[in-house]
Design goal:
Blueprint lengths: L1 E5 L5 H10 L3 E5 L10 E4 L4 H10 L3 H8 L5 E4 L1 H6 E5 L9 E6 L10 E4 L1 E2 L7 E4 L4 E5 L4 E6 L2 E7 L2 E4 L10 H7 L4
Parallel strand pairs: 1-2, 1-3, 3-4, 4-13, 5-6
Antiparallel strand pairs: 6-10, 7-9, 8-11, 11-12, 12-13
């Protein structure tokens, strides 16, 4: 089984390295045909506006949206979480509305305000060090969405079925727990 990693911009290579180290085959997604026969998809961190422009430019917006809505596992991190959200502010932009959360872009500050924090999470994610880079904040989490980890009371790792979102960068560093847990969603 192969996991796709959207490779238009952002931290796609770090995701692929972590997934490969966990035994998953990976494929970089740069054109619609790359989505064929995937078991799951990662929408990496980066800059969500640039990703939306790249998706439109490369004819990927509709195929990626169809994949996200297909019921197959999806992991969105930082900018990827923004793309999955129901509503986006700070400023407003379009998203796939695939996860019942609202997101405020760059809510923790600029690049200079980046930080690492230890999350408050379920047993599986307790003491996880999370890297926040121009990170979004989940301002609303729908009733069907499960919060798996928090920082200072804010939800930072959530899931609804096979769709997961992290407002941080689990691909940075050596802790593979988020990817390992998400991979269990694959058929």
């Amino acid at each position: 089984m192969t996991v796709g990693v959207l490779a238009l911009q952002g931290g796609f290579a770090a995701h692929a390295r972590m997934l490969t180290a966990l035994g998953a085959a990976t494929r970089f997604i740069r054109k619609p045909a790359d989505l064929a026969d995937l078991a799951g998809l990662v929408l990496p961190g980066g800059e969500s506006t640039a990703m939306l422009l790249g998706l439109a430019r490369d004819g990927l917006e509709a195929p990626v949206e169809a994949f996200v809505r297909s019921g197959r596992p999806v992991l969105g991190t930082c900018a990827g979480a923004i793309l999955l959200a129901h509503a986006v502010t700070g400023p407003a932009q379009r998203s796939f509305d695939a996860l019942d959360v609202d997101v405020e872009r760059n809510a923790y500050g600029t690049q200079l305000d980046s930080f690492t924090a230890v999350v408050d999470g379920e047993d599986e994610f307790s003491d996880l060090a999370a890297v926040f880079i121009r990170a979004p904040r989940l301002t609303r989490v729908g009733a069907e969405v499960e919060t798996l980890a928090r920082v200072a009371g804010d939800p930072v790792l959530v899931r609804c079925g096979p769709v997961w979102a992290a407002t941080f960068h689990p691909e940075l560093g050596s802790d593979d727990r988020v990817h390992r847990a998400w991979l269990r969603e694959l058929p």
